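Quick one - inputs below.
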Amino acid sequence: MDLSSFFPVWNKLSDAERTVLEASAVKRTFLKGSVLHSGSDECTGLILVNSGQLRAYTSSPEGKEVTLYRLLDMDICLFSASCMIRGIGFIVMLSAEKDSEVTIIPADIYKKLMQNSAVIAGFTNELMASRFSDVMWLVEQIMWKSFDKRLAAFLLEESNIEDSLTLRITHEVIGNHLGNPREVVTRMLKYFADEGLVALSRGTVTLTDPDKLRKLAED
Amino acid sequence: MDLSSFFPVWNKLSDAERTVLEASAVKRTFLKGSVLHSGSDECTGLILVNSGQLRAYTSSPEGKEVTLYRLLDMDICLFSASCMIRGIGFIVMLSAEKDSEVTIIPADIYKKLMQNSAVIAGFTNELMASRFSDVMWLVEQIMWKSFDKRLAAFLLEESNIEDSLTLRITHEVIGNHLGNPREVVTRMLKYFADEGLVALSRGTVTLTDPDKLRKLAED
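Output:
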């Protein structure tokens, strides 16, 4: 199994380390909508995304959700192996937003490598730093931006990921991403529609004026 | 300089590594209110808190602030040395909430040690994981808890840190901690006072019914 493209430090690893990683890697497929990882007790392992799209999110006791970040092709999910690292006191859930093929490195194998290699530990550090940055971005979005800007930014990001101006997405799903009730999303989308920013139909949102949306998001 | 109490992995370091750390360490004092670290360009280094109290926070373009976490005696600030770790794309500011004595390990020295030692890299990982947990806690507070619960939790935490039921703190400062305008804080504190949870006077907030506050915060 070719793992070199996932690990920028591949060339700095020893032959033995590479062999251990390759021998332990397992391929799995998850259908759209399925949950890959749902709690702190589980320790799925390091999840490498070969293709598809995963969503990392957190959930309130009442089932309210907010998206933390997305994992696309060639991304690595660290927190599905959170048992590896002491000091992680939170739960990240993971679900497939598209049919996805992933490669899993078992947590115990990776942990052992990390404990013995400064290169692998350093790489893990960078991985965590980059997810930390995503979450800090979210904190800033929540704290500083009002909902109209957050919704505009979300629609543009979705449109970018899907490479389409028409998004097949319900108001409820948007609300789950942004941590707002469906009613608030619906109200704001109607306002956007009135302003000519989007067009709404059952189950889709079409970006009719991406430039104006961008201006709103960046304002 | 005795650094062993800051580094739980001290016994696992080589003599050479310990010598480098000790030789590079510099003691500094910061008066209450002073800013230790204020941006991404700076790379102050690893800050070890000998005594006092530091506040890590983020700030909006308009100067709105929100507290990310506090650093008390024996805590280590990683993000004042964020240049050490690739992938960190956010800015954490740091100010002294009390007169504080800190020990600084220069970033370039620590980075070199980290690149060559799986033990130090692993320790750095745990440090980041624990700050990440603090920030995730904050995200959950913001997303799931309404402001009354957040304010109650904040007052109890402050009272705990200060070891006093009377807090010398302005509504504006509370607002900066929680990311809300002063007016919102004032309104909610007045509501708390009406309910008999706190007593207000110029520049102080006294917790008159901590049990009821706790119940509100945990509800």
